[in-house]
Amino acid sequence: MNDLEIRRLAYADLPQVIAIERRAFPTPWSLAMFVLELSKPAGICLAAFREGAMVGYLVCSRYDTVWHLMNIAVEPALTRQGIASAMLERLFELADRPNEQYTLEVRTSNESAIRLYERFGFRPAGRRRAYYHDNREDALIMWRTVEERTTA
Questions:
Q1: Pairing relation of β-strands 101-107 and 66-74?
Q2: Which of 10, 45, 62, 152 has the fewest Cβ atoms within 10 Å of its own Cβ atom?
């Protein structure tokens, strides 16, 4: 993804984030939700750009000792081009430490997202019944633990 620039998300990026969010999800986050996440000092919020245009974003918050991947979206016309993978790789470059833990919820019907998360080491760990308000779909809870590095 040589043509992809990934950098920290800024407040000035929020109009583009909201536009993608509305196209990507049936129940989009509000502007206030994004502002709240950006204001958290321990969070990592990233944006992906191609030729100066935002093509995706990622929001990950730190709660005590666990990272929670709150939101990741790619412009719907540009899915399956490695953008989400590139943002996850950057997140892990910034946050991974031995024994670091991550969690997320994903719609049980979102098989492509589940496969993506599994490629990055996330494993199913339970369900949240009727988690999504638009259709009462269950969420699959997934966890990823960074292995402790061994020295040879």
A1: parallel
A2: 152
Instruction: Return d(Cα 94, Cα 32) in angstroms, integer.
Output: 25
> What local confidence, expressed as pLDDT, does residue 152 receive?
52
Strand-pairing partners, residue 135, are none
Reduced to 3 states (helix: H, G, I; strand: E, B; else coil), residue 53 is strand
CA atoms lying within 13 Å on the CB side of residue 56: 24
Q: For 62-121, what is each residue's pLDDT tens digit?
A: 999 999 999 999 999 999 999 999 999 999 999 999 999 999 999 999 999 999 999 999
Alpha helices in 2-82 (DSSP H): 14-24, 31-39
Identity of the residue numbered 102:
Y
Phi-psi region of 82 (alpha: psi -120 to 50; beta: other; left: phi over 0): left
Give the three-state DSSP class for 37. Answer: helix
Cα–Cα distance measured from residue 49 to residue 136, given in angstroms and rounded to the nearest whole number: 33
The residues that bridge with 46 in the sheet, in sequence order, are 8, 58
Element (H, E) at 89: helix 83-95
